[in-house]
Amino acid sequence: MNERALVELARKGDEAAFEKLVTLYERKVYATAFRYTGNEHDAMDISQEVFIRVFRFLHTFNLESSFSTWIYRITVNAAKDHLRKQSARGELPLELMDEESGEYTVEISDSTYDPVELYERSELRQEIRHAIDALPTDYREVVLLRDIGGLTYDEISRTLDIEVGTVKSRLSRARDRLRKFLLQNGNKPFSFRSKE
What is the pLDDT of residues 88-111, one digit of tens each? Predict the structure, then answer.
């Protein structure tokens, strides 16, 4: 069954169809929320909020539009709302901490990798995350949606309600800033894979 048919059934109250839509998008919604917040607990909360909003407002969705763009827009807005509330309360983002030692922990799924290489990759991921967090909001949004979320220029344009040319311009400037930041912090020359 295609996505449009699932949306139509879910709009009519078909719970199984709605569950299939959740299954189709839960990973991408979570990944987008995680890139905004930087921790899994907030990303899970935001994901839950997104699907609650989708359920409540699915009847308002225009069937002629892209469902993926609509759900990404809801995700971005929910993440921004969460960060605004967190900022207003003066909360700092949570880190994944080992309860016994109190140190930051990283789960390693395959122990056959070289520990030095794993450490370096982990460090690079953290550097990239810090670099993305340091970007102005307009730049950070397009990087998250394009390079992390995998959305097309058109989908980003519709999600953020900006022109495609603006998306490309912001993405180019954001990537330049990220590259400079990473080079200044001693990383090897870094290039983004284009998904054009």
Answer: 665 544 444 444 555 544 443 444
